[in-house]
Structures are given as C-alpha cells and as structure tokens.
Design a protein that fits this description.
This protein has 241 residues and is of the alpha/beta class. It has helices at residues 13-22, 35-46, 62-76, 90-95, 106-134, 156-175, 201-214, 229-232; strands spanning 3-7, 27-31, 52-54, 79-84, 137-144, 181-189, 219-223. Strand 2, helix 2 (35-46) and strand 3 form a beta-alpha-beta unit. It comes from Streptomyces silvae.
C-alpha cells in the first residue's frame, strides 16, 4: 500500500481526492482542524477497503502539523503523495478579514502567509527529504487561481500569500527534475460543488489523479467561474447566512 496525506482535508474536495486515490489502493491520512469532519471522511473512505485515518492539527501550529504528519507515517507508512489545500473557516475570516488591493496592510497579510505559504513550506519540508531519499513521490499544492492565473483584487491579501506559494511550487517543480519526485500547483478558479461540471469535486479529483500519474505539468488551472465572479465574491461556504 502507498499513502496519500491530505493537509486541509474537508468534506468536499479533500473527501473527493481521498476517495479517488483510495479507489487506486492508496491509504489516506487526513489532516485538518476538525476531528469530527475528518472522522466522517475517514469512516466513508474506510468503507472502500483502504486504511483512512484522521490526524487533527492546525497548519498554523507547526509543531502540531509536524506531529500529525509523523503520526500518519507511523500508522500508515511513508507518505508517497502530499496534497496541501488549506482553507479558512468563518472564524478565521472574522479574525483576519479579506482585504482588497488598495487596502492591503502588513498586518492583513501576515495571517494569510501563516496559513498558506508557511504552512505549505512546513508540510512539504516534512515529507520531501524522505521522498528524495526513496527517489519517488508527488507533491500537489492547491490554492485559488488568484495566486496568479486569475485577477481577484477583492482578496488581495490572500493572493500575496498564495502567489508566493505558487511561485515556490513552480520553482520546486523545476528543481526536482530528474529526482523522481514531482511537484505541481493546482490553481482553482471555481466555486467547488456549486458550478458546472469542472467545479464538481469528483471531476476535480480525477484531474488530481491525472497530475499524479502523468507527472508532466508544473501547474493545472481549473477554471469554471461565472462571468460575475468578482461581483459575487466568496463561495457560499465562506459567507454567513
């Protein structure tokens, strides 16, 4: 068995990625803050016949993230694939609001750097040495497409952080050439589960599987936004009713 670790695993895309890779025989380690959410996903994936386990941790708490990844390795074996796709909660957004481009301040960027860029660096650097030693592995890092391919000025403080993360992963892709380890960035321009065919979690999970198996592209852009995406603002799950 090989092991996939999903950092930032949630009930939509993370669940679908886990199910897609589980169908190919991968054990799945699920890492995020909510034990309840993780356990529900783990229980569902376990029904497919693979091992799927929850390892609760906050990616902004680096020791906790390290401990979760270590526990996953101890329980399920070496991590062969890392998928990193954290997302803020409503509580996060209340504490560190999204800021449009003309109002960005240093303070408004710091929390976003912690969640996206620094958490990503910590997760990747935990698994990368082992992958390089084994001469095989896949790193897939996901963010909103405002990280580069799409302009989204209403969330500029986030895009500063995700833009840095994207740039690093594209450079990592180049640096890993010939090592047997593959890294790619996934830029998501979609309201997951709310739009057309390309926005559906299962369709997106198939695209992640293709990235892992074909191992050629430095970046995949999933683009399925409505024309009024700037006026619409955030996905429904980030808007309090």
């Amino acid at each position: 068995m090989s092991t996939l670790a999903i950092v930032g695993a949630g009930p939509q895309l993370g669940h679908a990625i886990g199910r897609r890779f589980a169908a190919e025989g991968f054990d799945v380690a699920l890492i995020a803050r909510s034990r309840t959410t993780l356990q529900a996903v783990a229980d569902d994936l376990s029904d497919t016949g693979v091992r799927a386990e929850a390892f609760p941790a906050d990616v902004t708490d680096r020791p906790a993230l390290h401990a979760a990844l270590t526990a996953a390795e101890e329980r399920l074996g070496p991590i062969d694939i890392l998928e990193y796709s954290p997302a803020p909660s409503l509580a996060d957004l209340r504490g560190a609001p999204l800021v449009e481009a003309t109002k960005v301040t240093v303070d408004s960027v710091l929390a976003q750097l912690d969640l996206y860029l620094l958490g990503g660096v910590a997760a990747v650097q935990h698994v990368l040495p082992g992958m390089l030693e084994r001469g095989t592995g896949t790193i897939l890092v996901s963010s909103g497409a405002g990280s580069g391919p799409v302009i989204a000025p209403h969330v500029a403080n986030v895009q500063i952080a995700t833009g840095g993360m994207r740039n690093w992963i594209l450079n990592l892709h180049a640096a890993l050439s010939g090592t047997g380890v593959y890294a790619a960035h996934v830029a998501i321009a979609a309201f997951i589960g709310q739009g057309g065919h390309d926005s559906q979690p299962q369709t997106m999970a198939d695209a992640y599987w293709r990235l892992h198996t074909e191992r050629t592209e430095a970046e995949l852009v999933i683009e399925d936004l409505p024309e009024n995406y700037l006026e619409r603002g955030l996905a429904d799950k980030f808007v309090e009713s």
